[in-house]
Structure formats: C-alpha cells, structure tokens
Design goal:
The chain has about 290 residues and is mainly α. The chain has 2 domains: about 220 residues, Rhomboid-like (Rhomboid-like fold, Up-down Bundle); about 50 residues, no CATH class. Helix content is about 65%, strand content about 5%. The strands form 2 sheets. A two-stranded antiparallel ribbon has the order 1-2. It has a two-stranded antiparallel ribbon with strand order 3-4. Strand 3 and strand 4 form a beta hairpin. Helix 2 runs antiparallel to helix 6. The longest helix has 25 residues. Belongs to the peptidase S54 family. One of its GO terms (cellular component) is membrane.
Length: about 290
Amino acid sequence: MTTIFEDIKNAFSRRDNGLMKLILINIIVFVVFKILYVVFWLIKHPEWYAIVASQMCLPADISQLIFRPWSLLTNMFFHEGFFHIIFNLLFFYWFGALVEEYLGSRRLISIYVLGGILGGIAYILAYNLIPQFKVLSARTELLGASGAIYAVAVAAATLLPNYQFHVILIGPVRIVYIVAVYLFISVVNITGGNAGGNLAHLGGAILGFIFIRQLQRGNDLGKPVSFVLEKFEKLSRPKSKLKVTHSIKRNGVGGGGSHVTQEEIDDILDKINRSGYESLSKEEKQKLFSASQK
C-alpha cells in the first residue's frame, strides 16, 4: 500500500506528467466514491451517497446550478460505472498522449479543462433553450469526462490529422476518421437516452477544434488555465534547501556575471513544460546549461 501512495506522489511531483495526473485524479475520485457508497450502505443510509454524489454532478436546472457552481468543474472528474471510466480513460490515454507529446502537459490540461467546461455549458444551454430537452432539465445531471476527452481527441485530430492508430481487425486508420466516426455517433445519439452526454461531447469537440486553430494562429486559449496551474504549483512546491547562486559569463566575458537563482531555474523548466525547449531565449538556455554544469 505504501508503494501505491509513493507512486501516486511521484506521479504528481513530475512537471511533464499532465496526462497521468488527470488519469489519476479520475481514478482516485472514482475509488473514493465507491468506498463511500459501501460505507453508507453498511450503515443503512445509501440515500446519503446520492446526496454527496449529486454535489459532483452538473445539473441542467439553473436554479440548482446556482447552489453548486463548482459542479461545472467537478463533473468532468466523476464517474459511477466501471465501464464508463475504463472506456473514457482508454480513449483519453490514446489521444492525450499525442497532445502531450506535441504540445506539452500544460496545454493538454488546458484543453481537458476548457473542453469539459464548454461541454457542460453546451449541455446546460441545450436543456434550457431547446423545447425537446427543456421538459427534462429539472431531473437531469451531467457527469463524466467525456466532454473533456472529446476536446482532447478533436484537438489531436486537428493537430495531426494524418497520424494513424492501428484498429483491431481493420489495421492502420488516420485519427481524423476515427474521431469523425465518434462525433457522428454522438450526433445521432442526441435523440437517445444519453442526450446530455452527447451534447457535452459536441461542446467539448468544438473547444478542441477552436483551441488548435487559434494556437496555430499564435493565440493560446489555455493561458488562464496555465496561469492558475503555475500559481498553484508555486504555492505547493516545497522550498529547496539547495540554492543555485553561482555566476555565469555573458558572451565569454568573465566577471560581473549575473546570478541564477532556484526560482529562475524553476520558471525556465515551467516554460519548457508549457511550450517546449525551443521557446526559450538564448539567455534562458544559457542559464539552464550553466545550472546543469554545477
């Protein structure tokens, strides 16, 4: 058991591990709520579980949403069925690994969070503005990472449309076609029993497409999420007892060199995590190299 907790701690301590962090958060939430269900069942109050679990779900009814606004975020980390979470996380792992490899962990997390939020907004709007759904809004709630995951999948397909996955019994298939099939299924299933989930899929998909198109134009829609993550990481990051304060030379000229602090190194590493090594300036690369030689 100690090994499990150590593995989880190590996974969260890594800077470039956004995919695994998101997967672990989903799994941890799932396990905690399953244990809660067993506890409430043992004390003969299973109805208490429904009350607690509903706090994680996003209600379509705006009068309920007002009293749990956090659910716009928490619903994308909450699953109740084993198959629901297994298939969601497998789908997320396949496409999330691509996004993380090419865009970095911060942007993967940004797409996931923003996709989940836009998916939730699409769900709320549809259930309150479209007559076919409006009558159901008072008794409908959204849960699951599907909207966020569809954002990541569409982002991957928009960024790398010709990348191929090997599909069982079919062979190599371009991911743009795989994602197109999933989107088509979501559209035709809007009339089915999981209309809310399919609406969230489409909302997330729109975010994924727009995010990549804007990024290709030089606009990073994930900056607000990255800003919050940076602040949180700086607050939670333990202060190192070893401080890097050695001097470096500028343009081969000795003396009068500037000092490289631990905070500067941390900021440079954060920048690499967000945008890759090539985004560093010449001075930042020199600081990083000098620190590595100490």
